[in-house]
């Protein structure tokens, strides 16, 4: 459940950003096709391909940044979750759940995140 709460907002934001980029790309392509039907010029087609490539590069940059954020969150969970699993269980539940098996389970969960 915890990863779902952490990663769900990132997933929703990414979905909206990519949907807007795709919609923007389709609108631009539709507008350019109307212009190309009126006036077929090779320079306009070159500009259209260049702008499509720029939009693809923009989407690629956004995806790269989202993946970096997700990797940083996962790395922080591993870096701090494994050594502090015992302290976290003691703080949250007291000595009741601070058994080696419980600590190992929480450490494994931190790696899965």
Task: Write up this protein.
The structure is a single chain. This protein has a domain at 6-62. The chain has helices at 2-38, 42-81, 85-93, 100-112. The chain is mainly alpha-helical and 113 residues long. The mean pLDDT is 79. The radius of gyration is 24 Å and the shape is elongated.
Topology:
Layout: H1 2-38, H2 42-81, H3 85-93, H4 100-112
Shape descriptor reads elongated
Average of the residue pLDDT scores: 79
End-to-end CA span = 10 Å
| Percentage of residues assigned to helices | over 70%
Strand content: under 5%
Give me the count of strands: 0
Enumerate how many helices there are, as a single number: 4
Order of helices and strands: HHHH
Q: What is Rg? A: 24 Å
Uncertain stretches of 5 or more adjacent residues = none
Largest sheet: none
* Strand-pairing-aware structural class: mainly alpha
Nutshell version of this structure?
The protein has 113 residues and is mainly alpha-helical.
Top keywords for this entry?
113 residues; mainly alpha; 0% strand
């Amino acid at each position: 459940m915890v990863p779902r709460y952490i990663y769900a907002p990132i997933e929703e934001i990414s979905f909206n950003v990519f949907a807007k980029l795709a919609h923007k790309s389709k609108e631009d392509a539709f507008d350019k096709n109307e212009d190309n039907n009126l006036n077929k010029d090779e320079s306009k087609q070159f500009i259209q391909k260049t702008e499509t490539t720029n939009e693809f590069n923009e989407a690629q940059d956004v995806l790269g940044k989202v993946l970096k954020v997700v990797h940083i969150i996962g790395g922080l969970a591993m870096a701090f979750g494994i050594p502090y699993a015992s302290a976290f269980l003691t703080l949250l539940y007291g000595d009741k759940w601070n058994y080696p098996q419980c600590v190992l389970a929480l450490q494994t969960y931190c790696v899965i995140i």
